Amino acid sequence: MPKFRPFQAQKLSPEESLKKALELEALLEKRRSIRLFSERPVAKELIQSLVRTASSAPSGAHKQPWTFCIISDPEIKQQIRQAAEKEEYESYTNRMSEEWLEALKPFGTNWEKPFLERAPYLIVIFKKSYDILPDGSRSKNYYVNESVGLAAGFLISAIHQAGLVTLTHTPSPMNFLQEILQRPKNEKPFLLLPIGYAAEGCEVPDLRRKSLDEVALYWEAD
């Protein structure tokens, strides 16, 4: 029989719940993707706390099908940058359609990714379609992409709440990450996040987020 324990729910008044929700909304509304990083160091303990938060995300059948590779070694960061830029160069010059390239123009991006070396930390999230048990057999994982996506969202939110910045980087294909970091065959790279503090004078595109009316539909009781 499965084991259960009492759930320790927060006891908040409707007013307190709304206040907390609005505070979180205001905090996360300020989150932006950053490509210009300071060299200011980040404490390892802080990074570890962020990863523990990410690992608290819900997952299919509680399989927790993720591995977080935390990189601060300059040589490995350099290897990752060189391999990523090789793939990005191919994407920008041969793989991306004109429509795609046009959509990227407001962001001023190109195939060069210096933030992969400048950011104090890189976290590469790997997804595991199955676990390898001690006897060598396989244990299937469920809703892997959804689970790892949730963990990535938790991590990005935690990074922002801690006053750090990041960027969701997905060079395609990302097989080089599996090779450089020597991950087993049951793990595939899902997302690369450079993490640190924003550089002094850092600017971001002046973007508008869609309004609630543009993203939400309601089915309400009469």
Give a brief rundown of this model.
With 222 residues, the protein is an alpha+beta fold. It is built from 8 helices and 6 strands, in the order H-H-E-H-H-H-E-E-E-H-E-H-E-H. A hairpin with a 5-residue loop joins strand 3 and strand 4.
Give a structural overview.
This protein has 222 residues and is of the alpha+beta class. Helices cover 40% and strands 14% of the residues. It is built from eight helices and six strands; from the N terminus they run H-H-E-H-H-H-E-E-E-H-E-H-E-H. The protein has helices spanning 14-29, 44-54, 74-95, 98-104, 115-118, 144-161, 175-180, 212-215; strands spanning 66-71, 121-128, 130-132, 138-140, 165-166, 187-196. It has a four-stranded antiparallel β-sheet with strand order 1-2-6-5. A two-stranded antiparallel sheet has the order 3-4. Strand 3 (130-132) and strand 4 form a beta hairpin. Helix 2 (44-54) crosses helix 6 (144-161). The protein is globular, with a radius of gyration of 20 Å. The model has no long low-confidence stretch (mean pLDDT 96).
